């Protein structure tokens, strides 16, 4: 392996180490900000280390066809150490600010949905319910007035047809079905 490839590999490993630190800081800040249960830290650590192992070996494969040398470990260590020495605090602050920005945007979207969708739908629902209530009240009032107006004519019609109706004989099956319907009605009410 020539010195150029070795330097490229060392630079890739420095980059990989810095990336490992960046991802670790981001993961740690997210874990603290969202206050996840303590048992999830083990699962997240496993996912982190598996992901970082795949990432580092992929970078190693890109830089020198996967040859693992001592300077690759030195590059990783220097990359992580340099990152934590120089960029760790800045990254943590940036991730916290980014989380707050995302939370603020989500809050704005929630408020926007409430103002643009929920309030008009609720207002429209209240208007429709109010109109149906007014229409129902008017219909009941008009029907009551109409029945009061028709009631004398109904009494007269009933008085005139009572002799004819009393002479008609209702079949037994109709009486039985009437009784069944009345019993069902009484049972359900």
Q: How are the secondary structure elements laid out?
A:
Blueprint lengths: L2 H32 L5 H25 L5 H17 L1 H80 L4 H17 L1
Helix pairs in contact: 1-2, 1-3, 1-4
Give your account of this protein's structure.
The protein has a domain at 3-122. It has 5 helices and no strands. The chain has helices at 3-34, 40-64, 70-86, 88-167, 172-188. The mean pLDDT is 87.
List keywords for this structure.
189 residues, mainly alpha, 5 helices, 90% helix, rod-shaped
Short account of what is shown:
The chain has 189 residues and is mostly helical. Helix content is 90%, strand content 0%. It is built from 5 helices and no strands.
Q: Note the total helix count.
A: 5
Count of distinct strands:
0
Cα end-to-end separation? 93 Å
Q: What about the largest sheet?
A: none
User: How much is the radius of gyration in Å?
Assistant: 41 Å
């Amino acid at each position: 392996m020539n010195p150029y490839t070795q330097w490229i590999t060392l630079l890739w490993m420095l980059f990989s180490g810095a990336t490992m630190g960046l991802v670790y800081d981001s993961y740690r800040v997210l874990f603290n900000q969202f206050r996840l249960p303590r048992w999830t830290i083990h699962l997240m650590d496993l996912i982190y280390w598996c992901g970082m192992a795949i990432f580092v070996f992929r970078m190693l494969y890109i830089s020198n066809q996967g040859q693992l040398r001592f300077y690759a470990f030195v590059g990783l260590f220097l990359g992580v150490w340099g990152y934590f020495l120089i960029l760790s605090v800045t990254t943590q602050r940036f991730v916290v600010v980014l989380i707050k920005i995302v939370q603020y945007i989500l809050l704005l979207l929630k408020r926007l949905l409430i103002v643009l969708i929920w309030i008009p739908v609720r207002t429209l629902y209240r208007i429709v319910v109010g109109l149906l209530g007014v229409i129902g009240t008017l219909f009941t009032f008009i029907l009551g007035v109409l029945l009061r107006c028709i009631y004398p004519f109904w009494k007269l019609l009933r008085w005139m047809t009572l002799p004819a109706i009393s002479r008609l004989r209702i079949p037994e099956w109709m009486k039985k079905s009437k009784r069944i319907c009345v019993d069902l009605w009484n049972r359900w009410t």
